[in-house]
Amino acid sequence: MFPEVRLRRLRQSAGIRKMIDAPLPGPEKFMWPTFVVDGKNVREEIESMPGQFRLSVDALLKELEPIVDSGVGSVLLFGLADPAQKDARGSEAWNDDGTVQRAIRLIKNEFPDLVVAADACVCAYTDHGHCGPLTDCGQVDNDAAIENLAKICVSHAAAGADIVAPSAMMDGQVAAIRQGLDENGLTDAILMSYSTKFASSMYGPFRDAEKSQPGKGDRKGYQASFGDLRTALRESEFDEAEGADMLMIKPALFYLDILAKMRAATDLPIAAYNVSGEYSMLHATAQRGWGDLKGMVQESTSALVRAGADILISYWANQYNELFRDS
Question: Is 29 exposed, middle or buried (0-12, 13-18, 19+ CB in 10 A)?
């Protein structure tokens, strides 16, 4: 007996496959995370993240030109304080004349239609590398931390950021930030919470880029545990109830099951952060000749959209034409 149903009919040519397949994510879905530093004409290659750089504000503006031309919809800014600027609270993070704040103003002036998001945390601004001030016993002081996060987000929004993005995983941070924004008349600022952010082994290249490795201990006491699904999902539920406009899953590729569960549980937009370790892992595979980079990137980002992501926070964004356009 020969088969009556032949599924190969629906994939026998490139034209048929294109007609039936879901399209690759467009550039407007991508948010490019990048690292902005003080100084001029700074373009420092990040060895652990091929194709990514620490950029001074003037260099960032030049770097953005082809990215904006490619149609990429947004940028996510991470600041990095000089060692002399770091203190126990990370106060440089809410300096209205700080590097990130200046970058926001200049980007919005140069590229008014580009959506600008700014990460809010102090791990790259504290002298101890944790995401908030420490108590006498060395633990992060949650309530002091959320007061500082609110200051950072108010400073970013006042500078012109379209989206403020708290990443510290402190309890009550969304409510505190929303209150701070409202009290300062910044009611239009979008609050994108790193709502389900795991204490992951996939952040190594990012911490290299940000020079934000904790001096002592780790962040497992405040970031979600990859072994506790229910509590991880509750993080996003609480942030939605506190007033977040967008939710986030971080990392992305190792947590597609949780991304799909989040999608089923909320009508809010969901961002998937395709983190540094996931990015560098594919680069390392391609460099060793073990896989085709373009194919791996297209397949992996399509998986994020299929699982429910609306926004792709991804280091592939600044290479969109090379990786997603037809050759």
Answer: buried
Characterise 138 by phi-psi region: left (phi > 0), alpha (psi -120 to 50), beta (else).
left
Residue with tokens 């601004």: 125
Q: Which of 29, 86, 250, 261 is catalytic?
A: 250
Q: Is 40 one of the catalytic residues?
A: no
Mean pLDDT of 288-302: 97
- Report the distance separating Cα 152 and Cα 164, nearest Å: 9
Of the candidates 86, 151, 197, 261, the residue annotated as catalytic is 197
User: Using N-to-C axis directions, what is the helix angle for 256-265 and 229-242, rounded to 10°?
Assistant: 40
Q: What is the pTM of this model?
A: 0.93
Q: Is 197 a catalytic residue?
A: yes
- What are 112-169's pLDDT values in tens digits? 999 999 999 888 888 787 777 788 887 888 898 899 999 999 999 999 999 999 988 8
